[in-house]
Amino acid sequence: MYEPIRTKSVHTSADDADFPHRSREDELDIQLAGHLGALLAVTDELGLTEDGDRIAAQVARLRGAPPARHAGRSDAAAQALHRRAHALAGRALVVAASRADTAVAILAAEAMDAHDAALTPATAPTALAGAR
User: Fold this and answer.
1) Could you give the CA distance from residue 16 to residue 1 in angstroms, rounded to a whole number?
2) Which residues contact 103 (CB under 8 A, 6 or more apart)?
3) How far is it, in rounded angstroms, from Cα 43 to Cα 10?
4) What is the DSSP letter of 128?
């Protein structure tokens, strides 16, 4: 009555697929490098060269190549840039903690402190290197 199915099902397991798989650690490295790259862009836009160099060194370590640095400036207010940098540093801190990367976790925590201090009206912006 019914003809049997002669082709393979489209619902086969992905374990048999012929494409490269990445480990959880590789995925976390990629995610962390992305967050740090975004933080680097905002840091460069704020003109914090020394801090940018420290972040760039960590991105280079994670990616295996130095990151591209953008010298362009937007018309964003400094307060908005500090808020964005604080949020990006927080994301980097979460990923660094989950992959147990102490160097990046310390760098991200220092960045959060520095950008938080820059957002507080009673204090002047401080460099990340001075937060040690």
Assistant:
1) 33
2) 58
3) 47
4) S
CB contact at 8 A, 69 and 40: yes
Cα–Cα dist 73/118, whole Å: 19
**Torsion sign (Cα): 44, 41, 109, 118:** positive
Q: Are 113 and 131 in contact (CB under 8 A)?
A: yes
Residues 15-50 pLDDT 10s: 566 667 888 899 999 999 999 999 999 999 998 999
Under a CB-based contact definition with an 8 Å cutoff, are residues 35 and 88 in contact?
A: yes
Asked if residues 129 and 50 have their Cβ atoms less than 8 Å apart, the reply is yes
| pLDDT bracket for residue 74 (50, 70, 90) | confident
> How open is the CA angle 31-37-42, to the nearest 5 degrees?
130
Query: Could you give the CA distance from residue 90 to residue 112 in angstroms, rounded to a whole number?
Result: 7
Round the CA-based radius of gyration of the chain to a whole number and report it: 21
Residue pair 44/51 in contact (Cβ under 8 Å)? The answer is: no
Helix or strand or coil: residue 80? helix
